[in-house]
Design brief:
heterodimer; A: alpha/beta; Rossmann fold; seven-stranded parallel β-sheet; two-stranded parallel sheet; 12 helices; B: alpha/beta; Glycerol-3-phosphate (1)-acyltransferase; two-stranded antiparallel ribbon; 11 helices; globular
C-alpha cells in the first residue's frame, strides 16, 4: 500500500492512476478541503489532514504503507510564509518521522529545481551538488530549500527508509495548474526584453514516470529530473503557438508578480537560465522522458488554445 | 570596405565554416548553453564584415589549433573584448578544421540585455569552471584570458605587460587533460587607449573599470570608439601538462608561468616584427 500526499494536485492524481493500473493500493491525503478526484481514481480513500497535525498520524495507524510519495509540497505563495513553513518543513518532518516509526520502506520527496534559482552566475548544466542560490534574492523560498535539505539529510540519518528526493525542472501538462502552466495558457505571454534564457520542461506524465521509477528502484539520493532538450523561452512560446510580448526588465519585477501572478522568484527564470543536469537520475533509475518537447508544451496549452 | 547593405545575408565562408562544425545542438537547433548555429551565422557574418575590414587581422600559427578539446590562452587588452571577437573569427574562418571558440564572459555580463543574449547564441558562455569543464569534456575549444579584467582594463603605461595570471585555467587543463595553445594578441592595447582608470566612478556605476581615453575630454562617449589599428594574432605550439590538478598553488603556479612566458615571448616577437601600429 502506498500513501500519496497532495492528492488534490494534478500530478499526484496522474501518479495514482498509474499505481492503480499496476495493481497497487493507494491512499491519498491533502491539507486542502476541496479535493476533487478524477473519475479513474475516485475509488481510493482520501483523508483531509495537515501534514503537521496529529490527525495525520491516524492515517499511518489505519494503513500499513510500504511506500510514501510526499508530493504535497506547497509552492503557492498565496499561502503565508508561516503556513508554508508549517506544511512544508514541519509537515515533511512529520512525514519522515512517521515513515521511520511505521517501518515504511521507501519515501519519495518531491522537491523543485526552483531552489537553485535562476542566477546569472549559474553554470550549465547544474548538477545536484551545486549551491542553491535562490535564497539570495528571494528569502521567501526558504521553506522549499529547507524541505529539500532536510530530506537530503534523512537519506543518511534514517537508512532503513530508502529516501529519494526529486528536483524536477518546470513541470507542465494538461492537468497541472502551477504558475508556469498558467503563464503559458495566457492569450499573450510576457517575455523580458533583451533576455531569452534556455529552459527545460517536464511533462506531468514524464514526472509521474520518474516518480514511479524512483519508488520501484533500489537506490537513494537527491536527483534532478528534466525532460528532453532545452530551448529559449521565446522558442518555447513559438512551439506552444502563443504570441509573446516584451516587458522592460525594470518593470518585470513589479508587473509579473501582480498582473501575471508569478511568484517573484520565478521572474528571474525568464531572465537567466537554470539548466539542470539529470544524467544521475537517468543512469541510476534507467529513466528517460518519453515525450518530446513539442508534445510536452503543446498538450499543456491545447485546451486553453482551443477554448480561447 | 565595411559593407552594411547586405547585413541580412549570411556570408558564404561563415556559413560553410559553421556547417562544418561538429554538431552539438539538439533537434531545435540549440545546445545547452544557448548556442544557435543560425544566429551565430549572422553574428559571425557581422563580425566578418565589420571587424575584419576595420582591424585587418593577420594570423600566424593557426595550424597549432587542432581538432578536439583545446584551451586557447591569450593576453587580454583593449578595454572592450574586441580581442576575443577577433580570435573567435580567426579560429572559425582560418582554423583547419574550423573551430567554434567558446569565449568565457565575465560574471556581471549576463545582466546586460540584448548583447548577452546575442553573444550566448553566438557561442559565448559564462566564465565558470563548471562550464569550462563541461565544454572541454564535450571536446570543444574554449578561449581563456587568465588576466581577466586586470588585463582588459590595463592603462597605456602597462601595455603588453602581462598582468597576474589566475590558476583556474591550469587546474582545468590538468583535470581534463586539455592541451593549451598560447596566443598573443597584438593591436588590442592601441585600439582603445586608457590613460587612467577612473576606479571610484566605475565602482559607482557597477562596472569593473572605467578607462579615460585621450579623446574622452574632447569627444565624450565617442572617445571610446576603437582606433583602426591592425590586429596580429600569433598562436604558439600547443603545450601539454601533466600532474595533479589539485596540487599545491606553488606547483600549479610553475606550470602557469610556463604558459605566461610563452605568451610573453610570442608578444615580444610580434612587437619586434611590427613596423607600424596601423598597417
Amino acid at each position: 500500500m502506498i500513501l500519496v500526499t497532495g492528492i488534490g494536485g494534478g500530478l499526484a492524481q496522474r501518479v495514482v492512476a498509474r499505481l492503480l493500473g499496476s495493481g497497487h493500493d493507494v491512499v491519498g491525503v491533502d491539507y486542502r478541503a476541496d479535493v476533487e478526484l478524477s473519475s479513474d481514481i475516485a475509488r481510493i480513500p482520501v483523508y483531509r489532514a495537515s501534514y503537521n497535525k496529529s490527525a495525520f498520524e491516524d492515517v499511518f495507524r489505519r494503513h500499513d504503507f510500504d511506500a510514501v510519495l510526499h508530493l504535497g509540497r506547497v509552492g503557492n505563495l498565496a499561502e503565508s510564509t508561516g503556513k508554508r513553513f508549517e506544511l512544508n518543513v514541519l509537515g515533511s518532518q512529520k512525514v519522515m518521522h512517521l515513515c521511520v516509526q511505521h517501518n515504511v520502506r521507501s519515501l519519495i520527496v518531491l522537491s523543485t529545481f526552483h531552489i537553485y534559482g535562476a542566477d546569472p552566475r549559474n553554470p550549465t548544466p547544474i548538477a545536484e551538488g551545486e549551491p542553491l542560490r535562490a535564497g539570495f534574492e528571494f528569502p521567501q523560498i526558504a521553506d522549499a530549500i529547507q524541505l529539500d535539505n532536510m530530506a537530503g539529510a534523512w537519506i543518511y540519518q534514517h537508512p532503513p527508509v530508502r529516501t529519494v528526493v526529486l528536483r524536477p525542472t518546470h513541470v507542465v501538462g494538461p492537468n497541472i495548474q502551477n504558475t508556469m502552466c498558467t503563464l503559458l495558457r495566457q492569450p499573450r505571454v510576457p517575455y523580458i526584453a533583451g533576455f531569452n534564457p534556455m529552459m527545460q520542461f517536464l511533462h506531468e506524465d514524464d514526472l509521474a514516470g520518474a516518480i514511479i521509477a524512483a519508488v520501484s528502484g533500489t537506490s537513494r539520493g537527491v536527483f534532478n529530473v528534466a525532460g528532453n532538450d532545452a530551448v529559449p523561452w521565446r522558442t518555447a512560446l513559438a512551439i506552444c503557438g502563443v504570441k509573446g510580448f516584451p516587458l522592460p526588465s525594470a518593470l518585470s519585477r513589479r508587473l509579473l508578480p501582480t498582473v501575471f501572478r508569478q511568484p517573484p522568484y520565478l521572474v528571474n527564470f525568464l531572465k537567466h537560465p537554470c539548466i539542470i543536469d539529470d544524467s544521475a537520475f537517468r543512469h541510476t533509475f534507467g529513466f528517460r522522458a518519453a515525450l518530446q518537447l513539442d508534445e510536452t508544451l503543446q498538450t499543456t496549452v491545447a485546451e486553453a488554445r482551443s477554448s480561447g | 570596405m565595411v559593407n552594411l547593405t547586405d547585413f541580412g545575408t549570411v556570408d558564404k565562408a561563415v556559413d560553410q565554416a559553421i556547417d562544418a562544425l561538429p554538431n552539438h545542438t539538439n533537434r531545435y537547433g540549440y545546445d545547452a548553453w544557448g548556442f544557435s548555429p543560425e544566429v551565430a551565422k549572422r553574428g559571425y557574418t557581422f563580425g566578418k564584415r565589420v571587424f575584419l575590414p576595420y582591424f585587418r587581422p593577420t594570423v600566424t600559427g593557426i595550424e597549432n589549433l587542432s581538432a578536439g578539446r583545446v584551451m586557447i590562452v591569450a593576453n587580454h587588452s583593449g578595454q572592450v573584448p574586441i580581442d576575443g571577437a577577433i580570435v573567435a573569427l580567426t579560429c572559425l574562418l582560418h582554423g583547419k578544421p574550423p573551430r567554434l571558440v567558446r569565449a568565457m564572459v565575465e560574471r556581471w555580463f549576463p545582466n546586460v540585455p540584448f548583447i548577452s543574449d546575442f553573444l550566448f547564441r553566438c557561442g559565448a558562455v559564462l566564465g565558470d569552471p563548471v562550464n569550462c569543464r563541461n565544454l572541454l569534456l564535450d571536446d570543444q575549444s574554449i578561449l581563456v584570458f587568465p588576466e581577466g579584467v586586470r588585463g582588459s582594463g590595463k592603462t597605456w603605461a602597462k601595455r603588453y605587460q602581462l598582468a597576474e595570471f589566475g590558476r583556474g585555467f591550469m587546474r582545468l587543463a590538468l583535470q581534463t587533460d586539455t592541451p593549451i595553445v598560447p596566443c598573443a594578441i597584438i593591436g588590442g592595447e592601441e585600439s582603445i587607449v586608457s590613460l587612467h582608470n577612473a576606479k571610484t566612478l566605475a565602482k559607482w556605476v557597477g562596472i569593473p573599470y572605467l578607462p579615460i581615453t585621450p579623446l574622452t575630454p574632447l569627444l565624450g562617449p565617442f572617445g571610446y570608439l576603437p582606433l583602426p589599428v591592425k590586429f596580429r594574432i600569433h598562436f604558439g605550439k600547443p603545450l601539454t601538462f601533466s600532474g595533479r590538478y589539485d596540487d599545491e598553488d606553488s606547483v600549479v603556479n610553475a606550470k602557469v608561468d610556463t604558459v605566461r612566458s610563452q605568451i610573453s615571448s610570442l608578444i615580444e616577437h610580434g612587437l619586434e616584427e611590427r613596423k607600424s601600429v596601423f598597417y
